[in-house]
User: What shape does this take?
Amino acid sequence: MASLSSLPTVSEDAPLQSTSAPPFDVIQYYSQLQGKDDPMPAPVAAVETLAELVSRSDSSTIQELLALLRSASSQLAAASFNPVSCTSGTAFFMRYLTLQRPPPEMSFREFKGELVAKAREFVKGSGKCRELIAVDMSDFVQDGSASPISELLPEDPADRTLEQTLLVHSYSRVVVQALLYAAQEQKKRFQVYVTESRPFGLGLKTHAILTAAGIPTQVILDSAVAYIMPKCDLAVVGAEAVCESGGLVNFIGGYQMAIAAKAMGKPLYALAESFKFTRLFPLSQYDLPSSLPSAPLTFPAPIDATSLKSNSVPPTPSRPMIDSKMPEALEMSDAATRHNPTLDYTTPDLITLILSDLGTMTPSGVSDCLLQIFGGE
Assistant: This one.
């Protein structure tokens, strides 16, 4: 990245806003964008937040603006529950800014206005990325079964009940949009298993959307992924971020799904917009950046057994007979849930293809895309 001293500066005619205006809280603004019923993707929300900051800033040089944006980016990463996705958005914004060379006759106020306009044009058009991916994904969704067994079935369509089966993880906007496009626009028939995706139960949202669209969908337990994999033709996942290695940062459970798919010879396709590409290069599950005060699944301090109450061990839930009622399930406490990870890293060797708005690529192609965006910095 070019040093700050080498970047051009443009004097400001007048401050963008009065210095008496209250300071802009980037964390609160970002939180509001992410707190909606169907929030925009985290990288897009990060870009919108920085654009709003630029529009309100009274900085008069590029050095001041870069310092302001770097500080805001660090604040967002430190406060974000998922700093990986947030950072990918702020990195794109910062890279775009450092590449700009405004003409001498342009005032710095005009330059900032143009920067904000370009950023918001990106935010507004970010949904087109999912449309492009949906079209590409439709080539992999077959109408009916992709199994050779289908050739032995009767020709009567009423008897051809075997359809292509997909296994989907959690909830992903781009995955849901791709499946809706295949079913509604291309009239393809297929069925979907979707993981429950604890602890937030995001798979239930996927189930509701697909069921409402007439797509046969069944929710499965996260622990049933290996059980159901032999019945599936392919697995499809979204991504919180796509690493430079070609691996995926995904909601917890994506890694185990990829392992099961690889072990059983099932292709796994990852759908991700290019603004989720990041220069992060983790070597293991434990290299993912985190803003939490302690690492997930750390052991608590030893407890004196004599201080435990005799009734602290719950009864064993059981359902001995077919007509027995379902037992009340044991639930993890909120504190125990908070100590569990919510993201994991899927290594590139487990991924068949990555479908992006930049095209369909193997995991190794991600580094080429990032090289084109960020250069050799």
